Structures are given as structure tokens and as C-alpha cells.
Amino acid sequence: MNTSESKITVSVRIPVDLPTVWRLWNDVHAIRQWYHASEDWHTPRATHDLEQGKSFSYRMEAKDGTEGFDMQGKFISVIPQKFISYVMEDGRLVEISFKEQDNETVIEERLDPENINSEDLQRTGWQRILNNFSTYVLKQQELVPFQFQKFISAEPMAVYDVMIHPTKYTQWTAPFCPGSYFEGSWEKGAHIKFVGPEKDGQAGGMLGHILENTPGKFISIKYDGSFEGDKEKPFISETWKDATENYIFERTDGGTNLKVDLQAPLEYADFFNTSWPQALQRLKVLIEESDEKR
Q1: Mean pLDDT of 66-81
Q2: Backbone region of residue 207 per phi and psi (left: phi > 0; alpha: psi in -120 to 50; beta: other values)
Q3: Distance (Å, rounded) from C-alpha 170 to C-alpha 162?
């Protein structure tokens, strides 16, 4: 282990809430996008098991394939949303702290220097990696458009009625979060709460209000905040702020073409592209099966 008492210290302040920053920091898919000190290098593979005593391995390579190495080590301490420390294969210790200050997240890294490159060069490299992470996080918070649609063999009003029915809403939205439901009204101007049980059994979700509601034709929702348990809180970052969700019911020959237009954070692209088609298929089956029974 490096016996020098000196430590290299780098830090970054990101205007995004701590839970989001923590999640992206530890997502191996995300790590492959930002973990590099220069644009001509990248991290094609990354694996880790974020628990005390478990290992990690990040493959860092020049994009032209001329050189590369595996950055490997073992986690010494993991305190969720607060602290990570690990020791690299060469014995150097890295300590990372996460703090929420003034609705932003501050990350500070302290590490033992190696003996080959100058400390200034090392500090520059580690700072660039942190800066890349900040850029990546901010990019993921940008609102981008999504559109999904489904043909349903039923009249627009039948689709509308089933879609916002309290019991049936829980059934067709299960691909997003099993057991999810809403509280409040779908009337224009009304506030509404979308609730999904968390892993620890405590409910959490999104707060919004209904911008427009023309039965059987159009619904528009604007998101206002989030909540955990009984505590409601406003957005503390740009994540989801001003995001919208619109439903368009188009009458067609033999039924309804239901369109869903979203403006939502880029980081949810994979989740939406998987979950929305599944949810709309569930809604279709729910409505068409119900129609057959009449």
C-alpha cells in the first residue's frame, strides 16, 4: 500500500437529488458511459457487487485498441447514499463521500496517489472522470419525447372508462410497478397522486395535476413532485420537473387508436420502451375481454 500521507482529493457538485446520483453512480450500465479520463478512452465492460468485501472490475481501453487495463479491487465499506471505500489491486485506498447540500449533491473522492505519474496529472485524470459523471447525470435528466400507441377494438369512451377506473388502472399499469394505484380525481384542474409500493413496503410515487380532460378524447397530466411514505415533497432537481403525459383517443374503423405522448427524463428510456408496450397490451386485453362479456 502507498505509505505517503498525502492524498489526492477531487470533488464535484451536481444539481440533482442524492438518490438519483447514487443510483446512477452505481449502475454498471451507466459506468460504461462515463468512466473515462479522456474522450479517446472508454470502459467497454464494468462489473461490481456493491457490498462490503465484494469485488469490482472495470475494463478501461483506448478506443483505437492500442492499450488498456483492468481496474480491479474490493469494497471495504458501503453506506448507501453516504460513503464508499475500496482498495485497488495495488493496495491504494479510495474513499468517496456523497452529501446533499442546498438541493444538490456533492461528491468528494480521496485516494492514495501512485508512484509513476505526477500527483497533478493523477488529480487531473480523476477530476475529469468526476466531471464526466456530472455531465452524464445532467444529460439523463433532460426531458425527451416518447410516443406509444395501441389499437383497441372498443369505442373511445369504453377505453377511457376502463383506463381510469381505480381497480382496472391497477391491473393495466402493473408492468410499471405491481400494485400501483392512484389517489385523487381525473377532473381538469384536480390534483392526483400515483402510488407504487417501494421495496421496503413503504409507498412512494409521483404528484401531478390534470391539465385537461375531455372524456373519450384527451387527457393531459403535468407532474409536480414526488413523495415517500406520508411525506410529500417538491422536486429537488430537474428530474421529472415539467414532465407531461398525454393520452389521445382517436376513433378509427372498428375501434380506438390510443396514443400516449410523454415528455420524460432520458434515463427512463429503456424502462419506458419495455413497460409501456406491455401496459398498453394489458389495457387492450382488459377492454376487449370485458367487451366480449357484455
Answers
A1: 94
A2: beta
A3: 11
